[in-house]
Model the fold of this input.
Amino acid sequence: MAEFTAAVYQNEYLPDGGTDVNAIVTVTCTGAGVAGKTGSGSAGEIIIVDTSGSMGTETMAAARKAAKAAVNEILDGTMFAIIAGSDRAALAYPRVTSGPGLVAMDSGTRAEALRSIDQFVASGGTAMSTWLDLAVTLFGSVPQVRQKHAILLTDGENREDAGKLDAAIRRATGVFQCDCRGAGTDWVVEEVRRIATALLGTVDIIPSAEQMQTQFQQIMQKAMSRGVADAQLRVWTPQGAQVLFVRQVAPTVEDLTSRRTEVNPLTGGYPTGAWSDESRDYHVAVRVAAKAIGQEQLAARVQLALGDDVVCQGLVKATWSNDSGQTTRIDPQVAHYTGQTELASMIQEGLAAKAQGDEATATTKLGRAVQLAAETGNEEATSKLRKVVDVENEAEGTVRLKRAVDKVDEMALDTASTKTTRIKK
Amino acid sequence: MTQTPGQDPAHPPASPGAPAAGRACPHCGAALDPAARFCEGCGQAVTAGAAAPGSSAAAQAAIASTATGPTVAGEASPGDDLGHSPISAPTHLTPVAPAPPAGRRPCTACGGQVGPDLYCEQCGTKAPTERDHFREEPAGWVAGVCDRGIAHHRNEDAMALAATPVPGERAVLVVLDGVSSSIDSDVASLAGARAAREVLRQRLPQGMGTPESRAAAVAKAFGDTVVAANEAVVAATAPDSPNPASATFVAAVLEGRRLAFANVGDSRAYWLPDPGQPGEPVQLTVDDSGAQAQIEAGVPREQAETSTHAHAITKWLGRDSPDLTPRVGELELSGSGWVLVCSDGLWNYASEPTAIAEVVVREQEAGATDPAALALALVRFANDCGGRDNITATLARVDAPVA
Done:
C-alpha cells in the first residue's frame, strides 16, 4: 500500500504588517507498487505514433522499433491501444469499430500489436487534435480503466487551424496523462509542451533515431511503475486569504495555480496525475491578513488526497515577529526554487526572443539564465546553455549569443528548461 | 477522561482521598506514573505538575462536604491535593497547563471547528494551549475564563474557582495576575490561585457573635489565604531567580447573601446588580496601585488610570513582597446580579462599575446569559478592544432571594 509523507520548508516569521507566506512542501510516495495492480482499477496505455508523410524512411523505421519497445514494456493485463496519427487518427490496434477500444495485454494481443506496427505507412499531414480526440474516445470506451496514460511521438509541426489543438487539449485534460516526444528538429517545442503540460506529462527531444527505442522503453517502464492511479494536491487557506500561486517545482516546474478546482470554499484541488515511488516539491505562496506581533496563524494546509482520503498533510505557518534576524532570513529551499523557476522562464523567454530576432532581449535573458543556473547548481541547464551562448562572466550573467547554433541544442535547452535540481536538505 | 476542575458535579468520586492515583496525561488521557516526566501513551512531555482529574474531583467532594457540615479529619484536606500540582513541585520555566476538556473547544477567534492539527479549520488561528486559555465551570452558576489576550506572548493570569451545585449557596472566585516582568510568573500565579482556593474551601469563620469579631475573623481567614497563595508563588520561584515571580491577588467568597472579598494589587471584584434591582454597580476592591494613590490624592479616575505609572502596583505576592496584608471587605447582597472577579486585562477597557455593568448587560442581551457564556463574552470584549494584557473574567450568578 502506497504511503505518502509531506515535509514543509519555510521561514514562518513575518515582519510587522507582513502578509505573504512562502513554503516548499515536499510530498514523497513510497510503496506505490505497479500500475493497475493496487486495487484502484486497471491501467490503460495508448501509444500514439506520428505516421504523417514527413516521417522519413529512417525515422519511420525507428518509430516502429520504438513503438514495439514500448509495447514490450506494457505489463500483462494492462489495457492498451495503438493510434497511427496523420491528418486524421487511425486505430492501428486493436482493429475494432465498436465496443471497447482497448484490449488486455497478453502474449496473443502483444504479437498482434507488434504485427500491426509493422504496417505503419508514412503519408498525409499532421492534425494532432484528431489524435488526442481519438485517445479520449478510446479511454471513454473502457470505464473500468482508472489509470490512463499515453505516449505521443511526433516529428513535425501541427498543421491545423489555430485553436483546434487547444480545444482538443482541453477535451483531453483530466482524461489521460500524456508524455510527449519530438523526433528530429522539425517539431515545435512550445506546441508539444502545451500538450504535455496540460496532460501532466513530460516533453523531450529525441535528436537521433537510434535513441528512440531506449526513450520509449524508459517512458513505458516509468508509466508501469506508477501504482497510484491519481491524486490531488489540496491547499487549504484560511478565510479571507489569497492563494498567490501553487507551483510544482521539482522534478519540473509546472504552474498549477490556474488548475484549481474547488474542494470546498477554503480548499482548492490541483491535479497531480499518477504517482510512482518519488518525491515532488511544491512551492505554495499565500497572502494572509497581517496579525499582531507574536500571533501565530496557519497560512495553509497542503495535503495530498487519493479520492476523498487525505493521505498526508504539511502545515504552512505564519508568525509575526519584530526580530529582524528572524524575519529577513529566506528559507534556502524557497530561495532555490524561486531561482529555478526564474531560470525556466528566462530560458524560454530568451529562446523565444532569439527566434524572433530580438538579440538584445535574448542576450539579457539567457545571460540571467546562465547566472541562475550557476547560482542554483543546475549543471544540466549550465551545460545546455553553453551550447547556445558563449559565457563571458558566469557570476554576472554576461554572455554573447553563439553565431552558429545547432537547432538540436536549442530545442534540447528549451525542452529541459523546466527540469529542476534539488538542494540538500 | 480529562475535565476542568469540578466540571462534573453530577458524578462525585467514590473516594476523594487519593488524588495522585488519578494522575493522567493532559495530552492523551493515559494513566501516568506519579514520577513520570513523559507519557507512556503518547510520548509527550508531562510536567510533574500536570493537573490530575482525580484531584479536581476530590476538590469537588471537599467543598461539597464543607457545604453540608464541617470537614472531618481524614478527609481530603487542602494539603493532600498538592502532591503533583505546581504548588509543591515548582516547575521552573515550564508552564503548567490545566487539564484540557474532553474534545476540542471551538476556535477562540472565530468559533470555527479546530482541526486535529490544533489550528482552526476556518480562520487558521492556532488553538491556544491550556495555559494560554482555560475555562472553569465548577457549577452551572459559577464560571470563569482565563486568556492570554493578544499582545502578550504567554498567559500569566490565573484563576481558581469552586462552587457548590446549589445555586447561590457557596462560591469561591480567585484571580491572580502574574507580573510579566518577573520570571515564571505564569507558573507562580496558577500555583498561588489554586493554593488560595484550597484555603477558601473552608467556610468563612463567624467570629464570636459580634460584627466586629466576625470581620476580624474573616480578615484573618483572607490573611491566611494570602499567606498560602504567597507560599505557593515563592515555591514556584527559582531560589536564585534574579527577578522573582510576583502576582496580584483577588478573591471573593459568596456564602448565601453574604459576599466577602480581599485583594492585594490591582485585580478587582465588582458587584453588578441586574438593571432594576436594588443598589448600583460597585467596585468592591480598592487597588494597590499608582493610579489608586493618585485617585486618593484627587486626580480624576480616567486620568489617573491612563497615567504612566497607573499600572505600577504598590503591593503584590512573591518573594520580594513588601506587604502581604490584603484589603478585606464584606457586602450583604439584596437583589439579583453578578459577582465579577477579574484582572486588569478586562477592567482596563471598562473601569467604572457602570461601564463594566453596561458591557455585562449588553453581552447578556446579545445572548450570553449563563455564566460560562458571559465570561467568554467579556474576554472577547477585551480582546476586541485590543487584548493588550492577559484577561481573566470570573463570574458567580446571584438570583434574587426567594420571598
Observations:
- Helices of chain B lie at 53-68, 185-200, 211-235, 290-296, 301-305, 344-347, 353-365, 371-384.
- Chain B is about 25% helix and 20% strand.
- The longest strand of chain B covers residues 170-177.
- Confidence is low (pLDDT under 50) at residues 1-21, 48-95 of chain B.
